[in-house]
TrEMBL record:
Keywords: Cell membrane, Glycoprotein, Leucine-rich repeat, Membrane, Receptor, Repeat, Transmembrane, Transmembrane helix. PANTHER family: RECEPTOR-LIKE PROTEIN 12, RECEPTOR-LIKE PROTEIN 12 ISOFORM X1. InterPro entries: Leu-rich_rpt, Leu-rich_rpt_typical-subtyp, LRR_dom_sf. The keyword Protein transport does not apply. It is a single-pass type I membrane protein. Its main location: membrane. It holds the Pfam family LRR_8. This is Receptor-like protein 12. Belongs to the RLP family. It is found in: Cell membrane. The chain crosses the membrane at residues 387-411.
Length: 441
């Protein structure tokens, strides 16, 4: 139980996160002088319970940051009266992993609100146009893992980060705000084609539409000359849809692309050698499609220099696996495990659907003495640093499936500071927030 003493009426920063606080939120239901004047309140990761009414919460007029996340028995409901009430100074509102049932439209008049995290709650039905009005300065909206069926309008005219993954969104693709840099709508039930208007998002860095029911072909516009998106896009994840056709060669001018995941679709194409122009590419997933033909046309100029994962399993590739594939992928290194022993763990099951492939590291021999009996020429002797080529195509014996989630996005964006900052900010860093919405340096 949380008790506040009147002598603390000048308190500006109250951080009690990750303790063992329990019981109902009486101080919020009956605000005292301490909480009424408090700019910063963090009670996340506790065992607090009860039903917070919005008409009582808005009495905390000075709050700039409120974090009640990860109190699983805590809920927030709107009042029938006081519809025009809001938290006028709020900048960050964290209510993740609680028991919220409805979208908090009472916050849409909070003109300083920048970050709204409602992930892992029980929000059902839709976000209506009326509920999405306002939100003038909202830059980060996290609605991951709820039960949303549709979004009539995406809140936030200047939204930078939008997370709608793991909901029940149906129908066509929603119209995204123009300033988006991170658009994550995986694991929903979106249908139709990927609209070409998505290429008008000039600042889009990460696009994750995996695990939906999108069909048609991949839009050519992703790599159109003169399109700013071709210079910004770093992650394109379309895994687990119903896409057909071939990979548009316009992607080869997305020079900053680091992750391309097209696995588990119906793409009918040959191996895209032309992607070697993407010198920053780190992850290439083509598994479980209809790719066909040989993959032996690698040469000494093969330039996937930064590739760290490649998954070609469950396709219709034929021919022998060229040694150049291993010799040239210089980024696939690990100095802890001997190369030969590592490859000995691979099995034929890792290449289900590529029955025409043969040669090292597979046990299947190629005809005409083409089997590579030894490991690639880059294997070092005992006096040298040993190398391990972490080839996801081999599947580590079971056909590796890259389950791309928030953890995957952290990997692909390099420095995960933006995500850590959003989900759980450092209290020392976030605590000094002025009531005017600016931080002290």
């Amino acid at each position: 139980m949380l008790h506040c003493r009147p002598m603390l009426n000048t308190l500006e920063y109250l951080d009690l996160h990750s303790n063992k606080l329990n019981g109902p939120m009486d101080p919020i239901q009956e605000p005292n002088l301490v909480l009424l004047n408090l700019p910063f309140l963090d009670l996340s990761f506790n065992n607090l319970s009860g039903n917070i009414k919005s008409c009582m919460l808005v009495k905390l007029r000075n709050l700039s940051l409120l974090d009640l996340s990860h109190n699983n028995l805590l809920s927030l409901t709107s009042c029938n009266y006081g519809a025009n009430s809001t938290l006028p100074m709020i900048i960050e509102f964290h209510f993740s992993s609680c028991n919220m049932q409805r979208f908090p439209s009472f916050l849409n008049a909070s003109k300083y609100l920048q970050l709204l995290d409602l992930s892992n709650n029980q929000i059902h039905r839709s976000i209506t146009k009326w509920e999405a009005e306002g939100w003038e300065n909202l830059t980060t909206l996290n609605l991951f893992m709820n039960f949303l069926i549709s979004v009539e309008k995406i809140p936030g005219k200047h939204l930078y980060f939008l997370e709608l993954s793991s909901n029940s969104l149906r129908g066509p693709f929603p119209t995204p705000p123009q300033n988006l840099s991170f658009l994550l709508i995986s694991n929903n039930e979106l249908v139709g084609e990927i609209p070409s208007k998505i290429c008008n998002l000039s600042f889009l860095s990460v696009l994750d539409l995996s695990k939906n029911k999108l069909g048609g072909t991949i839009p050519d516009c992703f790599g159109t000359f003169g399109n700013k998106l071709s210079m910004i896009l770093r992650t394109l994840n379309l895994n687990g849809n119903q896409l057909e056709g071939s990979i548009p060669q316009s992607l080869k001018i997305c020079f900053n692309l680091e992750v391309l995941d097209l696995g588990n679709n119906n793409i009918n194409d040959t191996f895209p050698y032309w992607l070697d122009t993407l010198t920053n590419l780190e992850v290439l997933v083509l598994r479980s499609n209809r790719f066909h033909g040989g993959i032996q046309n690698f040469n000494r100029t093969f330039s996937f220099r930064n590739l760290q994962m490649i998954d070609l399993s469950r396709n219709e590739f034929t021919g022998h696996i060229p040694p150049e594939l291993f010799e040239n992928l210089k980024s696939m290194k690990d100095i802890q495990i001997p190369l030969a022993n590592h490859f000995d763990t691979f099995s034929n099951d890792s290449f289900d659907g590529n029955s025409g492939l043969c040669g090292f590291p597979l046990s299947k021999k190629c005809g005409n003495n083409q089997e590579l009996e030894s490991s690639p020429s880059t294997v070092a002797d005992d006096s040298e640093t040993t190398l391990v080529w972490k080839i996801a195509a081999m599947g580590y014996g079971s056909g590796l499936v890259l389950g791309l989630s928030m953890g995957y996005i952290v990997f692909t964006t390099g420095k995960p500071y933006w995500l850590v900052k959003m989900i759980k900010r450092n209290p020392q860093e976030r605590g000094r927030i002025h009531q005017n919405g600016r931080r002290k340096n």
